Amino acid sequence: MKIQNRKYIIKGGRVIDPLQGIDEKLDILIDGDKIEALGHFEKKEGEFVDVRNLVVCPGFIDMHTHLREPGREDEETIETGTKAAAKGGFTAVASMANTEPIIDNSGMIRFIKEKAERDGAVEVYPIGAVTKGQKGEELSEMFDMAKAGCCAFSDDGNPICSSYMMRKALEYSKIVDKTIIAHEEDLFLSKDGEMNEDFNSTKLGLKGIPTISESIMVARDIAILGFIGGNLHIAHLSTKQSLDMVRKAKKNRLSITAEVTPHHLSLVSSCLATYDTNLKMKPPLRTKEDVKALKMGLRDGTIDCIATDHAPHALFEKEMEFGSAPFGIIGLETALGIVCTELIQTGILSLKELIEKMSVNPARILGIEERTLKKGKDANITIFDPNKEWKVDVNNFVSKSTNSPYDGWKLKGYPVMTIVKGKIVYREGEFQQ
Amino acid sequence: MMINGKDLLGIEELSKKEIEVILKTADSMKEISERKIKKVPYLRGKTVVNLFFESSTRTLASFALAEKRLSADSFNLSSSSSSVLKGETLLDTVRNLEAMKIDFVVIRHPMPGAPHFVAKRIKASVINAGDGTHEHPTQALLDLMSLKQKLGTIAGKKVIIIGDILHSRVARSNIWGLKKMGAEVSVCGPPTLIPYKMEDMGIKVFYNLNEALADKDVIYVLRIQKERQEGGLLPSLREYIKIYGITPERLKNAKKDVVIMHPGPINRGIELDPRIADGKHSIILNQVTNGVAVRMAILYLLSGGEGDEDSK
Question: Which residue out of A190, A274, A275 would a mutagenesis test of the B interface target, given it has the greatest number of B Cβ atoms within 10 Å?
Fold first, then answer.
């Protein structure tokens, strides 16, 4: 399937564009890399791409992806990670800074951008480190990185332990009006913990990570935010207690946002009875009550977006006894299936709300071009079938890693086509070069 | 009847019926160790490797003797003498052993779930000889056997486990086992050494020893794992002994015929006063004797042997 002409028409899909308040059967005329018009078009105006019975919406953005390049190209590269993103329905990813070396200066930001320009199947928005070397000691050159194209700052992988440093980061980031993305974890409390501290950790003899190791840091950072200002985004929020605090902070009109991962919406700590290392992650899988609260948090708007925290790890590192395996799972290729199954099929979110949380809101938080299908905008479009059932098979993943606990799961919700700047980069199993 | 599955990984997964079959089979195995010629051919031609990643006296010796008395060919591998020191992974270690056609892996490992990890990846039967702070199923089985011998029945008896519950695989396995056999179980120890939501296992939790002892039939004393007490779990051993040490004075609050158990190794004078350890209440060495019989029973049953059913 190769489009020959500059102009083509996404024909007959259900177009949902939250920013324009559109939800109807429409065609989209694409000219080159831009959206030309929405309406009803004839064949003479351009080649048809038939998307009947599919949902057509502004392109999804995964605002929490670990691409592992540079440093661990055996686990993932910009090329394979962005391919996995395209296959998962994402037209862009924000890449985390904890590579080897750390992305903590403008040269590294440029490296990621240039590499992505050349190898990337989708757009890559690099996130820069908050502190030099992510050591939590000195601020990185945020201004310089922002100028080079960095979209936000994060020491993700690690918390910013010092309250002083978090204060300075929120303060200094005002120079560029960018968001600090916080991995909230009190390392004194999580210590050498391996899973959520609850009855299951007691039963399994695994060391516990208490929910308070997250919520204490969320409370701290909300206090700092209230005191000094700036923009704070809570990465991979996982507990009911943290959620309640974010809800309250939003009521108090603080500039705070939050994301949740698909795995924290679909798995719980009792799943760890198998000691499957693909269930080992940070924050750890919590309890049923937390999952229920997180879903309600998505519904009432406390949680702004869904992000994968795609964290590839080599098979030999995960094929270990539980205590020796690293934290993290991949998620780009299963995210849409999980969220449609958990949120759409169950009626917790409408399709419009889901699209806001996977496209509109991430763009707003990252301060990149707004995600809408208006004339003149970049044609970044995700096309998916929210009802199609499919079976996850890690052997079919295009990611370099297979550390997914969802192998063999049946999911409802299937990414069909991904269009990046007018180019159909992925369509039903096939990539276009 | 046989026990289900190819492995013995924990007591949690066993049914009451399976435990009864193991105990009954162990009863008949016990006599073999009393014979002049302590050997039967049940496991002739079977190969067993005792893979120990943690130090052990009782469990390793007990398994080794059980294997020999059943005529199995067995050998020991420890982390300090194997290629683990060269960085070989657990997975490679067991796959290599499997390539040499072994029938059983008896594994002790400092990490919870290590035996489960191995069991899923090799065809040989895996026996958990202690996985970190998770389970120690053969210990619980030998404890149940010893208690049954001493008290006739376990159902309805009141058992208290005392000490460092947090780090104890023995406590976890025993709680499952005792509960399945109908005992009433409680634990007692410093709050920092009792894991979160412990009472959800269906037991009572005490912090104060004197109030807990009065009506108990059995006091199961755990070893204070000195190597695991860093990081503010205990202010001092001195204070621990004052509150939780089992001494003759303290036993005055207990039933006259109370039974004292301990999984070994004992820290004499810390969790257990030597006068109690060696006194009339103690069945500590019976536990050790029964350990061989229980392990013989497990090896026999997992190799496909027909177990004994309760004839009653």
Answer: A275
Q: What is the CATH number of domain B16-135+288-302?
A: 3.40.50.1370
Q: What is the spatial distance between Cα A18 and Cα A58, in angstroms, rounded to a whole number?
A: 9
| Interface A:B, Cβ pairs < 8 A | 65
Annotated catalytic residue A309? yes
How far apart, in whole angstroms, are the C-alpha atoms of residue A340 and residue B19?
A: 45
Q: How many of the other CB atoms lie within 10 Å of CB of B312?
A: 4
| Of B170, A244, B87, A18, nearest in space to B185 by CA | B170
Q: Per-residue pLDDT for B228 more than 90?
A: no
> pTM for the complete prediction?
0.95
Q: Is the omega angle on the peptide bond into residue B265 within 30 degrees of 0, that is, cis? A: yes
* ipTM passes above 0.90: yes
| Cross-chain CB nearest to B112 (options A198, A206, A274) | A206
Q: Which residues contact B162 (CB under 8 A, 6 or more apart)?
A: B187, B188, B189, B209, B219, B220, B221, B222, B244, B246, B271
3-class secondary structure per residue, chain B: CCCCCCCECCCCCCCHHHHHHHHHHHHHHHHHHHCCCCCCCCCCCCEEEEEECCCCCHHHHHHHHHHHHCCCEEEEEECCCCHHHHCCCHHHHHHHHHHCCCCEEEEEECCCCHHHHHHHHCCCEEEEEEECCCCCHHHHHHHHHHHHHHHCCCCCCEEEEECCCCCCHHHHHHHHHHHHCCCEEEEECCHHHCCCCHHHHCCEEECCHHHHHCCCCEEEECCCCHHHCCCCCCCCHHHHHHHHCECHHHHCCCCCCCEEECCCCCCECCCECHHHHCCCCECHHHHHHHHHHHHHHHHHHHCCCCCCCCCC
CA distance A222 to A421: 37
Q: What's A176's domain CATH number?
A: 3.20.20.140
Mean pLDDT over B300-311 rounds to 78
B-chain CB neighbours of A323 within 8 Å are 110-113, 132
Q: What is the DSSP letter of A349?
A: S
Looking up tokens 């300090």, which residue turns up?
B80
Per the structure, the count of domains in chain A is 2
Task: Answer with the residue of higher pLDDT: B230 or A187.
Answer: A187
Q: How far apart are CA A201 and CA A96, in angstroms?
A: 30
- Is A372 among the domain residues? no
- Mean model confidence pLDDT for chain B: 93
For the domain covering B137-287, report its CATH number. 3.40.50.1370
Q: Give the active site residue among A309, A378, A393, A407.
A: A309
Query: Which residue in A17, A3, A103 sits closest to A56, CA to CA?
Result: A17
Q: For residue A407, give the H/E element and its range.
A: none
Inspect the interface and report whether the beta carbons of B91 and A320 lie closer than 8 Å. Answer: yes
- Can you give the pLDDT at residue B210? 86
Q: Which residue ranges in chain A fall short of pLDDT 70?
A: 1-5, 433
Is residue A209 domain-shared with residue A244, that is, in the same domain? yes
Closest CA to B163 of B143, B189, B128, B197: B189
Cβ neighbourhood burial of A395 (10 Å; 0-12, 13-18, 19+): exposed
Please state whether beta strands B218-221 and B204-206 pair in parallel, antiparallel, or not at all (unpaired).
unpaired
- Answer whether A275 sits within 8 Å of B169, measured CB to CB: no
Residue A79 lies in a domain: yes
> Taking CA B24 as the corner, what is the angle to CA B23 and CA B25, rounded to the nearest 5 degrees?
90
Q: The tokens 């949740």 sit on which residue? A: A260
